[in-house]
Every structure is written in structure tokens, then in C-alpha cells.
Automatic annotation (TrEMBL):
The lineage of its organism: Bacteria, Pseudomonadati, Pseudomonadota, Alphaproteobacteria, Hyphomicrobiales. InterPro entries: Ald_Oxase/Xan_DH_a/b, Ald_Oxase/Xan_DH_a/b_sf, Ald_Oxase/xanthine_DH-like, AldOxase/xan_DH_MoCoBD1, AldOxase/xan_DH_MoCoBD2, AldOxase/xan_DH_Mopterin-bd_sf. Gene3D superfamilies: Aldehyde oxidase/xanthine dehydrogenase, a/b hammerhead, Aldehyde oxidase/xanthine dehydrogenase, molybdopterin binding domain. Keywords: Molybdenum, Oxidoreductase. GO terms for molecular function: iron ion binding; oxidoreductase activity. It comes from the Bacteria. Pfam families: Ald_Xan_dh_C, MoCoBD_1, MoCoBD_2. SMART domains: Ald_Xan_dh_C (SM01008). Residues 1-24 are annotated as: Disordered. This is Carbon monoxide dehydrogenase. Residues 28-148 form the Aldehyde oxidase/xanthine dehydrogenase a/b hammerhead domain.
Length: 786
């Protein structure tokens, strides 16, 4: 052990590109997702959904469904009257600019008196087989009187718009404001130049590889519900379900196995889950349900859906003076518990970016519409804020005749200014934005771009280059568990409340524990997916997993070492003050006498040794540590994209992509690069391909992959990635989070590149997605510049 520990740490410790330990299982097809599970005596469920976007629900005729062979029950809102409204969670604390409360209408799991979007759940059919459940669902006959529809948020806010909720005047959920309006007005009054730009962050379908699925059970003996499902955290999901069921949290257990993607969408409680748990209780049998892909298009929460009007004030030299943001965000028909947070607060915080901007004021209105609810999607407002700022910077440079690279350099927050307090209420604690910027430009060979542009022009193509220089504000770290259990077989079980749905937690967390506690990497076993084994947990989201669980692991290791020193002293027959801990061993300082932490854990299981321990000493090294909180961190980077556009067809091809990043201390560069790739490709999808489209009747026109374009492998080039490490000071590992950063850099860099390619033809702005049709039309609608 003495000789192997340093070698082990060098191979599997922090900073090493260790492959994900779960990959062999997944590649062999041995993964177990919710739909792979089967319970004895299980029944199958199907959802009856509204085919109309808005209407009065006069009644639901279930007689035909009950006649279908194999159907055992049909449940409607009347059957679920005992359940509570769906929880509002974070949104309940949102306030209007005048201090009044946000308008939060109460929603039950199944539609009661009205349906408010296509896909709104009306009934749950339970049958002996999935086929019978689907047939039964088709036989249910809802009686709906059609009402006028409003599917656009700005139209929903207009005077005389159809009322989606009687208790929400003007469909206005909240008008939120922040910042110093007076300082902004003063700055704009004295500005030498003002750039104004409207950007649309298009609504997108989340479309994870694994659709939502769940299996509900109920134990009448202890009156306890259990739900197996894909989620982003079993502990927060348990608490949300308990509120909706009107029971104490300990009466609910949530189990999550492997999850085939989520990107924010599976963090929320959905009405189907409450209905399934009701059915399991009523029937005394497990009830399972798996969403179809076509249903998921109208039932899974969508992402983005915000329009922002930005104004940037500059002096004559191009120094930023102030930023104003006006916006309208679409919440859909029902409230996602956290949607108003990312549609409002996250926008100006992230729009501050890497630049000195003395004043900011934001005012954003969230509206209800007759559409599928909108929820968090990779970045949750962070990419939208960064996108607005970077498009404003690029546009201001063109309007003022200043090189866009030079304009950015003039306004960077310099490293000597850190810690830097922004007018949005954030404080950058570490980093070097100019260094990241120059590293990206060098890696992208920006100096050689003019030659590449000439080569493209010789082939009849338009070439553009775009910068996306971003700084993200991660989510705050709330209470997070770091439990350690030393098992009889020599392994160490790590329990924590984040949840892996593709990030590679098992590998990264084992690297941290291996380095900090000196236990073998391969001995670490991660447990995340059982709410019964957790005492705290915030789930995974907001680019905070390693900040949260990493800090919890460090705290747990400290407790193990503190408890282990007197135990090691007893084993080594020494005084506790003489015991030191290093490389996984407790040793008597200045001697070669030591005992490994795993050996000590094994000795504590020996009857004789345990009996010999003095009173007051721990009988185990097991700990249950909870890390209380950590501030946000500020991952940042600069992405450089190059595109080629065929002016004859409007087809845009992304041909080069470079990303230089500051993610603080990088625990596993292989995982970080993989996370970055995923985020960038999702950003490319939103920038060039993806867009949810409703017609005036609230019908989804982009309701399948036949109508909705997701990025594929040939839509992205190979990526060049560089990581410069400027450790965060806000958490014990110095990490900053990386899961959402790819989107933050991709949206502005790709769209700036598109506009740069089109600008010589007179096109100065284009909203996402830059589809071939849109590009082709823009080229023909705008005369080319001389």
C-alpha cells in the first residue's frame, strides 16, 4: 500500500483524464433505465391528452374505455380530488416590480374544468397491458367546448387577449425588474452611441434520448408511496411529490437508476406522476407508464422561449456605460416551478459577461400562453443573457466602426480588478478574461481568417467568423450530502444527493475521494438514486454538481480523518497528537509506523479491537456529512466559430470551432471536454436548426422529428478545446462547473459568425435558427453593400 498509493493517485487522482467507469456497462447494453424495469403484478397506464389548445371541459366519458378488454380503471380529476395542487416551489417567492406577488394559478394533476394546451392530461387509463391501455385511452371521450387561443406571449399580453386563467389578469404572470434604472437613464442620456437590438431565444424541444417513464407503487402497511423514474435528484423530487400528494416527505420514496439525458427537463414534477401514484394506491398494484415520443413533444417542458430587447450605451471611445434589457418570456399554460427564475433573474446576471458595465437595468414580463409549459433547458437563462450581450457587442462594433476584437479588449474586466462586483449583484472572485480571450484567438488562428475567407469566396461561398466570450453564473450550492460508508469487502460507498444523467459523476467523485482520502479509485462505489439513503441533496442542475458534492466529499473526508486519528493512535499505541494523515495512511509523525484508512476500517469490525476501544471513541469511520452552502462560481470562456454559407441555397455549414475555457480546477479533462462538446452541439442545434412552431389554433406544427431538426454528427466539426485553470475561491476544490457552458459560448459565436458572413451582403442581424430558408430569404431581401 505504501508504494501503490502515490502511483494510484497519479493515475486516478484529480486532473487525470480517467474514462467514465459506467461506460462499459452502457456499451454492453446492460444499462437499466426506468422502462427496463418490471415489477410483479404490474399494470400499464396511458394518458388521455387534450387535442385542443383551449376549451371548457364539460365532462369525460370513460364508459367506452372501461369496455375495452384488459382495462381495469380510468381516473379523472374527480378521482384525484384528494391530492394537492402542483407545487410552485421557487416561483412562489417571485415578486413583481411593484412588490406584489406573482400570479400563480393552482393546477391539479388532471384537467378539471378547462384544458389549456394541446397535450394537457385529462385522464389516466390503467390496463393489464400497454396495448390495452392505449386502446382504452383512445376510447375515452372528453367533452370540450372550444375557447379562443393565444399561443404567442406578446399577443397574450395585449389588451383583449383571450384569458387563459380567470385569476390572472392579462395573462401576466409576473413583471420582474432589477438594477438601477436611474443610473441607466443617466448613462444613456450622456452616451455617444447607443446600440439597440432585439434577439429571440427560440423555443426548443428538449428531446432527451430516453423519454420520461415511471413506475408507481404503494405500501398500505406503512402508507408509503414509491416512484421509480428518471430524475435529476431523488431528494428534491421526493419533496415535490410529497407536496403534491399532501403527505409528509418520509411517506414518499424516489428511486432513480440510469437516466438517458434530461438537460433540465426531468428536474420537475409532472402531473402524470401524481396520477400514477394515485392509481397504484387505488389498485394495490404497481402501475407503470412510458411516454411516447410524439406525446413527449407536447407534454415534456420545452426550453428557452424568451425575446429580449437590449440597449447598450457607449462613450465615444467605445467604453460600455450601461445596459438595459426589456423582455417577454413564455411560460406556457402552466407554471414550471423554476421557470420564472431563469426567464428573469438569470438573464441580467449572465448578460454582464466578461465586461465592465457600470449600470444595468432589466425588466422582463413572463406570460401564460396556450402552449406546452416551458422549463429549464441546459443553461436556463444563462446562454440567453450571454447571447444578448455578445450580439450587442458585435453590432455596436459594426455601427461604431471599431474592430470587434478591440472593442472587447477595451471593456474586459481586468484580472487586477478582481474581486469585481457587477451591477447585477454578482462578484467575480477569480479568472483572467483577457488571457482566455487571447488564447482562443491564437488557437483559432484569427489572423489567418482573411485568407480562409478568400478561399471560400473563390468557391462561391460566404465565410464568417464569430466570437462568443461568456461568463456564466452557476446555481448556488444548497445543502448537499457527502456520506461515506466503509464496507466489509474493502470498498467505500459514497452517498450524495446530486444525480448523474450523463455527466460521469461516478468517475469524477471517485477521483476526488481517491485523492483526498487516499483510497483506491476502483474501491469507490457511488450511491445517488435512492431518496431513503439521503439526508440532504439539491440534485444536479445549474453547473454545480462538483461544487456541491465535491465540497461535501471534502467535508466528509475531514470528518473521517478527525475521527480516525484517535482510533489510529489506539491501534498504533501512540498519542493522538502524534498522528498525521497522508496518502491514505494514519502515521506516527517522524516514524515509519502507520495504518491505512481501509485497514483501520477493517480493524474496527474486529470484535477484539472494537472491545478494546476507550469510551468516547467512534466505533466506525462511517460519516454522514452535509455541506451547507457555497456561493455561485463563474465559469467563463471564449468560443470562436467559423461558418461557410452557400448563397444559392442558404445552407450554413459550421467548419471550424475553438473553445478556450476557465472551469477552475479541472478534475477530469476528458469528462470536461465531453460536457463541453454536448453543450456546444445543443447550442449549434438551437442556432441553426431547432424551432418549436405553433399555429394560431395552438396546434404544434413541429411535433415530430419529421418536422423538428436536431443536430447530427455531420452538423458539427471537430472541436479544439483548451482549458486554462484559474481556481475558484468559493469552494474547497476550486472548481467552477462546466455542464452548461457549451451552450453559452455556442449561441453567440455561431450566430455572430453567420451575421459576419452575411454582413457584406447587407444583412446585419438574424434570429435563431439560421435555417437555409431564412438565410436564403434574407440574402434576397437585402441588397448587397457596395
Amino acid at each position: 500500500m505504501d508504494e501503490s498509493t502515490p502511483l494510484m493517485t497519479a493515475k486516478f487522482g484529480m486532473g487525470q483524464p480517467v474514462p467514465r467507469t459506467e461506460d462499459p456497462t452502457l456499451l454492453r447494453g446492460e444499462g437499466r433505465y426506468t422502462d427496463d424495469l418490471a415489477l410483479d403484478g404490474q399494470l400499464h397506464a396511458a394518458i388521455v391528452r387534450s387535442t385542443m389548445a383551449h376549451g371548457v371541459l364539460r365532462g369525460v366519458d370513460v364508459a367506452g374505455a372501461l369496455e375495452v378488454p384488459g382495462v381495469v380503471a380510468v381516473y379523472t380529476a374527480k378521482d384525484l380530488a384528494w391530492t394537492a395542487p402542483m407545487p410552485a416551489n421557487i416561483a412562489a417567492s417571485m415578486k413583481n416590480a411593484d412588490g406584489s406577488a406573482m400570479a400563480i394559478p393552482q393546477r391539479k394533476a388532471l384537467a378539471e374544468d378547462r384544458v389549456r394546451h394541446v397535450g394537457d392530461p385529462i385522464a389516466l387509463v390503467v390496463a393489464e397491458t400497454a396495448a390495452a391501455a392505449r386502446e382504452g385511452a383512445e376510447a375515452v371521450m372528453p367533452d370540450i367546448d372550444v375557447l379562443p387561443v393565444v399561443a404567442d406571449p406578446e399577443a397574450a399580453l395585449a389588451e383583449g387577449a383571450p384569458a387563459i386563467w380567470d385569476e390572472v389578469p392579462g395573462n401576466r404572470a409576473v413583471t420582474w425588474a432589477s438594477g438601477d434604472a436611474a443610473a441607466c437613464e443617466a448613462a444613456f442620456a450622456t452616451a455617444a452611441h447607443v446600440t439597440r437590438l432585439r434577439v429571440v431565444s427560440n423555443r426548443v424541444v428538449v428531446a432527451p434520448l430516453e423519454p420520461r417513464a415511471a413506475i408507481a407503487t404503494y405500501d398500505p402497511a406503512d402508507e408509503r408511496f414509491t416512484l421509480r423514474l428518471g430524475s435529476q435528484g431523488t431528494f428534491p423530487m421526493r419533496n415535490l411529490l410529497a407536496k403534491a400528494l399532501g403527505v409528509a416527505p418520509e411517506k414518499v420514496r424516489v428511486l432513480t437508476g440510469q437516466v438517458g439525458g434530461s438537460f433540465g427537463m426531468k428536474s420537475a414534477i409532472y402531473p402524470e406522476y401524481v396520477a400514477l401514484l394515485h392509481a397504484a394506491k387505488a389498485l394495490g398494484k404497481p402501475v407503470r407508464w412510458t411516454d411516447t415520443r410524439s406525446e413527449s413533444f407536447v407534454s415534456d417542458h420545452h426550453g428557452r422561449a424568451v425575446t429580449l430587447d437590449g440597449a447598450l450605451a457607449l462613450d465615444a471611445e467605445g467604453n460600455f456605460l450601461a445596459l438595459k434589457i426589456e423582455g417577454v418570456a413564455d411560460l406556457g399554460a402552466y407554471l414550471n416551478p423554476v421557470a420564472p427564475l431563469f426567464s428573469t433573474i438569470n438573464i441580467p446576471k449572465n448578460a454582464m459577461g466578461v465586461y465592465r458595465t457600470p449600470a444595468v437595468h432589466a425588466r422582463i414580463t413572463c406570460a401564460y400562453t396556450n402552449t406546452t409549459p416551458v422549463g429549464p433547458y441546459r443553461g436556463a437563462g444563462r446562454p440567453d443573457g450571454n447571447y444578448l450581450m455578445e450580439r450587442l457587442v458585435e453590432t455596436a462594433a459594426a455601427e461604431m466602426g471599431i474592430d470587434p476584437l478591440e472593442l472587447r479588449r477595451r471593456n474586459h474586466v481586468r484580472p487586477e480588478a478582481l474581486p469585481y462586483a457587477t451591477p447585477a449583484g454578482t462578484t467575480y472572485d477569480s479568472g483572467d478574461f483577457p488571457a482566455i480571450f487571447e488564447a482562443a484567438l491564437a488557437a483559432a488562428d484569427v489572423d489567418g481568417f482573411s485568407t480562409r475567407r478568400e478561399e471560400s469566396e473563390a468557391r462561391g461561398l460566404l465565410r464568417g467568423i464569430g466570437i462568443g466570450h461568456y461568463c456564466e453564473v452557476t446555481a448556488l450550492v444548497t445543502a448537499e450530502m457527502g456520506g461515506l460508508r466503509f464496507e466489509p469487502d474493502g470498498s467505500v460507498t459514497l452517498l450524495t444527493g446530486t444525480l448523474d444523467y450523463g455527466q460521469g459523476h461516478a468517475t469524477a467523485f471517485a477521483q476526488v475521494l481517491s485523492e483526498k482520502l487516499g483510497v483506491p479509485f476502483e474501491a469507490v462505489r457511488l450511491v445517488q438514486g435512492d431518496s431513503d439513503r439521503l439526508v440532504a441533496g439539491g440534485g444536479t442542475g445549474g453547473s454545480k454538481s462538483l461544487m456541491a458534492s465535491g465540497a461535501a466529499i471534502v467535508g466528509a473526508v475531514d470528518e473521517v480523518i478527525e475521527a480516525g486519528k484517535p482510533l489510529a493512535a489506539h491501534a498504533l499505541e501512540a498519542a493522538p497528537v502524534d498522528i498525521v494523515f497522508e496518502n491514505g495512511r494514519f502515521a506516527i509523525a517522524g516514524t515509519d509506523r502507520s495504518i491505512a484508512v481501509l485497514e483501520l476500517a477493517a480493524r474496527l469490525r474486529e470484535e477484539g479491537f472494537a472491545a478494546s476501544l476507550p469510551d468516547g471513541l467512534a466505533r466506525s469511520l462511517d460519516v454522514t456529512h452535509v455541506h451547507d452552502t457555497s456561493p455561485s462560481a463563474y465559469p467563463n470562456g471564449c468560443h470562436v466559430a467559423e461558418v461557410e454559407i452557400d448563397p444559392e441555397t442558404g445552407v450554413t455549414k459550421l467548419v471550424r470551432y475553438v473553445a478556450a475555457n476557465d472551469f477552475g480546477v479541472v478534475v477530469n479533462p476528458l469528462l470536461v471536454e465531453g460536457q463541453l462538446h454536448g453543450g456546444v452541439v445543443q447550442g449549434i442545434g438551437q442556432a441553426l436548426l431547432e424551432r418549436v412552431v405553433y399555429d394560431e389554433d395552438g396546434q404544434l406544427l413541429s411535433g415530430s422529428f419529421m418536422d423538428y431538426g436536431l443536430p447530427r454528427a455531420d452538423d458539427a466539426p471537430f472541436f479544439a478545446v483548451e482549458n486554462l485553470e484559474f481556481p475558484a475561491t468559493t469552494n474547497p476544490l476550486g472548481v467552477k462547473g462546466c455542464g452548461e457552458a457549451g451552450c453559452a459560448g455556442a449561441l453567440p459565436s455561431v450566430m455572430n459568425a453567420v451575421v459576419d458572413a452575411l454582413r457584406p451582403r447587407g444583412v446585419t442581424h438574424m434570429d435563431m435558427p439560421a435555417t437555409p430558408q431564412r438565410v436564403w430569404r434574407a440574402l434576397r431581401a437585402t441588397p448587397a453593400r457596395a
